Amino acid sequence: MDLKFLSIYIIILASLLILGNSGSVYSSSYGDFTNVSKQEVTAKVLQFVTNSKEGSGHIVTIPTDDLIFKILPKYDENGRVISISLAKDTRFDYLYRQVGFTEKSQTTAFVYPIFTQAAYSKNSFYEYYTKKCDSRCLTVNIPNDFKGTYSSSIVGSFVLSALNYAYITDVDIDKNPDILKQYKRVIILHNEYVTKKEFDAITNHPGVVFLYPNALYAEVKTDYDKNTITLIKGHAYPDANITNGFGWSQDNSRYEYNVECSDWNFYKKKNYSMLNCYPEYMLIHDPQLLKTLNSKDPTALLEDVSNWLRYNKDPKMIDIMLDDFDVTGENIPPWVSNPAIWLINGEITRDDFNNLIDYLYQNKIIQ
Hints:
Elements: H1 5-11, E1 16-19, E2 25-29, E3 45-50, E4 58-63, E5 70-75, E6 81-87, H2 93-99, E7 108-112, H3 114-119, H4 125-129, E8 139-141, H5 154-162, E9 166-169, H6 170-175, E10 185-188, E11 193-194, H7 196-203, E12 208-210, E13 218-223, E14 228-233, E15 266-269, E16 272-275, H8 287-293, H9 301-310, H10 315-323, H11 337-344, H12 350-362
Parallel strand pairs: 7-9, 7-10, 10-12, 11-13, 12-16
Antiparallel strand pairs: 1-2, 1-6, 3-4, 5-6, 8-14, 13-14, 15-16
């Protein structure tokens, strides 16, 4: 795989994305969009078809006045977006400096899900799942370019690349798990299909942000001589009772179909920061999401804990703090204020406090 491909792809600021019937977005060509500033979006809203839990398309509507990138859409006969190109908009240069990096980041990288792109390609895993193909479709070629889809978070990868986040791929980590050690923070997209080596490297890294839910969901193995991946376990294979192929307790796949992302929130699980929705299109029009992602701690845990200490009877403050730990409840025992103070003072770790909240929730003390 040419690892310079994506960088070139973004530098020229061109990515033709085709939205298929299944709600997937495919990049199919690239070129020089030097005249991009001369073109205008005349529609008042853009409508994107996304996946839904029921298997039918869900429409995400974005007012064009809210866009923080230059989006050039093409429409189908029903007025829905079937292709777009994305570029920076000079009106928002001030914002890009706040939410991104002026030069390619040396400390933060995202992982482009090339294995997931393969899994959603033609004659692959999903045609096996829907019984349109036999087990031959459980071994597929690893793509040699980045013609990704909504399901492989292609728009998110373009946004982060435009903001000068560094990137690596599933292949890079599988071949050299230590590559993650050069980054303080690693952002995981919809990396649904990964190898065991990649799973171990990601889950053992101290600074992981899961920007998309349903990551690390199924195990694949690689054969680089044949340039293929093969499904091993997960997604109801080889047993219908198997969901997460790694038995990963932090799996947050239940948020996969929250595609509006209107109630987005980063919460803490172990040492991970996780988002509670699928942000593919929110990333092109919500500056606060990009600011939070680029902050030192996207979960803002200490701030929320401090606010709860000051207003510990305020239902809103209770909700906000518990959201950081992905639990719900209407009351927190008053004595929790002591370990909360210890956390703020650095006397206990975030993991310690997280384990306490989780214990109280599991034992119905917080309810």
